[in-house]
Structures
1.
Amino acid sequence: MSNVQEKKAVVLLSGGLDSTTILAIAKSQGYTPYALTFRYGQRHEAELRAAKRIATAEGVAEHVIAEIDLRMFGGSALTSEEHEVPKGRAEGEMSEGIPITYVPARNTIFLSFALAWAEVLGAKDIFIGVNAIDYSGYPDCRPEYIEAYRKMANLATKAGVEDEGELNIHTPLIDLTKGDIIKRGIELGVDYSVTVTCYDPTADGAACGECDACILRIKGFLENGLSDPAPYQ
């Protein structure tokens, strides 16, 4: 009988390209993944359906869809009909300021839920698909933010206080371009045709092809000499 202790990890799974890649990376590193998805008031359900399909296909130990409603605050084109999703922007424009698709404090909220579940599971590892290269200027995707959160997490938990080992937040995509991420995912056998990255897809999940997320994604596939296998309008 094996004495090797199971390595549990909470993996934040949105149903998009990045989070599906980190799920594959976590599995390749020997972790037993527990997938955490959020219905947070986003304007479409396509990515939630994608997350369910991916979690089932990848055989995660458990898949939780947490229900929170950030529409009560608004402030983002992803949670409020008052704001339009920007379309057709050049890459230079994407790097100028923080776009309206930024959801205030989203990663802080998501990581807090992941931290709570990790503590209950006895897991010491959280995987999140943040990226500081092709990330449209989001402040909660930067390495210094992740490191600050990791320090806070180890101060804020029973496991941290009782010195049961430090919690680690894994960001394997943080310094990769979208092309690099796709290359890594293809090496791990990720099926990108079922992922939904678009900020403004149709009801059945077809991507718009014009929002920042679509533009960066299409570029990433082209850099690998490929066309994106996901459906577009």
2.
Amino acid sequence: MIFDRIIGLFSADMGIDLGTATTLVYVRGQGIVLCEPSVVAVSKDTGRVLLDGMAVGEIAKKMLGRTPGSIAAVRPMRTGVIADFDITEAMLNYFIRRVHGRGSFIRPRVVIAIPSGITAVEERAVRSSALRAGARKVHLIREPMAAAIGAGLPIDEPTGSMIVDVGGGTTEVAVISLADIVCSESIRIAGDNLDAAIIEYMKRTYSLLIGEQSAERIKIEIGSAAPLKEELEMEVGGRDLIAGLPRTTTVTSQEIREALGETIQAMIETIKRTLEKTEPELSADLVHNGITMCGGGALMKGLPSVIAQATGLKVSVADDPITVVARGTGVYLDHLEQWKGAMDVSDEEM
């Protein structure tokens, strides 16, 4: 243990929010140093990542739907877990080397936030990818716990705190007390499903095929969970499914709200199921403490108010909700010896 602490003084230990849509990296003593889309460009001929072209992250995301026949832009994480082992390993390797630097001879300890509904096989895949990508030791922490820590909730106290993390691939809901998750729900319905719902709506209503990035842009700019004081509209371009030619049309925020309704309702039902499993004393705490939201989905217009109306609890959005989980892994790193027995899923080293 003492030797590990000494090594730690010379290692850029890091926390990673390995998300379906975005990967964030926190380095101890520096804060969040990397926030990049979880997208990788791959050569179809060799199957290898185009690292020489820096085709990882933001650059690779711009390639989605725009690549020639010899290149594929791939999202190796799906629904919060690894969909392509080799590409995820290459992506992690690139991010770790970029943050840690080639000059350091001591590999870092890495804390990775994982969905609470992940299987043992998926846990091993995450751990193995990080170790092979250059980590000295890997600690896994449940995503709702990392989010609660990053949001500054009183997790150590004997009081109930509820966190709702709406990410790209999963929606994580948990009630936490005394530094542990008391009850939780994890569904693989989140931001990607909202994008897919918009794509399907445009196909069904306008016979217009749009790409993932266009759907995401629609969601961010005019998507809402509740009626807006001033409804919005947006011009959208894509391919006409009947004529096969490029075409644009205008959609309104009311239409997009209709398209998103079913997916949003699934998230609300998940929150309700978690509340139904909560012990009475903790339920009483939640009346006072309310629900804290984080993740990119927390930024959707009207979503906090819709959840508040459905549950009868006050709902607040954490500061800088997209970085909450990554910040939580950083705080966890600072309290590793104190918390790892209670919070760490398990750890392993090379």
3.
Amino acid sequence: MITPTPAIILLSGGLDSATCLAIARDQGFAPLYTMAFDYGQRHRHELIAAAQLAADGAVREHRVIRIDLRQFGGSALTGDAAVPKDRDESQMSAAGVPITYVPARNTIFLAYALAWAEVLDAPNVFIGVNAIDYSGYPDCRPDFIEAFQRAANLGTKFAGRFKIHAPLIHLTKAQIIRRGTELGVDYGQTHSCYDPDETGAACGHCDSCLLRKKGFEDAGVPDPTRYHA
């Protein structure tokens, strides 16, 4: 009899995290738990997408953690600064850490996942970070993921058993989309835009939208995103 291997997936509702959920299922992890965060982000429509993905994915439990990162600011996603629009990849890469980076966000998210993992005795956590298609976020780098995993194993009862799975970290956006398509991910349910309208339609011009568009184009997969006029 195969012993169940539970896993927690950080599920933002975006393209990458939806692919991670499909990968975790394909690799045989079960039961699956998902965690999303309502942290004061301007693009809260992603939480609706996360809930739908979790429901359709038949996860055992989906939790939405409410924290207020707006009290610190420092990001266009948690403050009033304008979200950059219509930048090409050279402009994105030349900008250093972009204004859409939320300070310490993945550190905070992984810490919450780690706490739930201890309670569930589920030492596997999936996160959809990516270091290839440019984001410029320091908390998406392999060194950060490896360092957090080491710290988690030192500071919890897992004592070496805790593992962070980052299956997308060395993939391009096109490769991620191809993999998810193979696994049956409905990308029409996902939400990536940093500055959607009140209906949740994507702006089509922020860095996230542009990288998503290019990913579908490069993958040769029709883009199902709903953009506002």
4.
Amino acid sequence: MPKKYLGQNFLFDPSILRRIIDVSGVTHNDTVVEIGPGHGRLTKMLAEAAGKVIAIELDSELFKKLKDELKEFNNIELVHGDVLKYPFDEIGPFKVVSNIPYYITTPIIFRLLEARKNLKSMTLTIQKEVAERIVAKPDTKEYGVLSLAVQYYAKPEIKFIIPRGAFRPVPKVDSAVIHLDTLKKPKVKVHDEKLFFRIIKAGFSQRRKTLSNALKPIAKNIKELLIDAGIEPIRRSETLTIEEFARLADIVKEAEPEIGSAS
């Protein structure tokens, strides 16, 4: 019986599972992490495609069943635990291929990005709306903090949509398979990452306000700093590219070097 509090929606169609593996680019040379293997259907297919599979399952009942279900595979390491606490820095280079729970999608993505030194790519089945926010471009309603935070570290692409009817139990929304290649270095160079993300969060916390009003908590003279950065103060955050946010952050840092130490 699927547990609602764990966000369990299982995907059984082998053709869809095969397509997920195909777009992931997994080879026999790869170590693959699967988060929430569930009944092990994708896990088995990954074991045939990859060199090693590390399957992390939080549900105690499923973990016990998986131990028996996967015992014939010598290249699967089954882990009972919380993925947010898993020591990814200890496993060397890896890829992630997973159908992850909707309710914890963003924390999982950011936990994986923290391990980006070893993370080569992620191929995730997630809520369609969240995938659209991740890949969103400026001047769209989906564009926001999540778009910029992920695109700073990775190159995301929606590969295909999975209708809700393909899952059991059937969720209320459709899903998307999104592939993210980890960038070797961030998309833009900034002098102070903490300040860069503070400005982004402040700007999007009040989307309807102009930048000169939304960013007043960052610096009192923000209007002048926006002009110095070549950004019209009457613009709104959703119109700025990641490059413009980076330029503004550096201008602010140069004008007020102590500002990055603020919380």
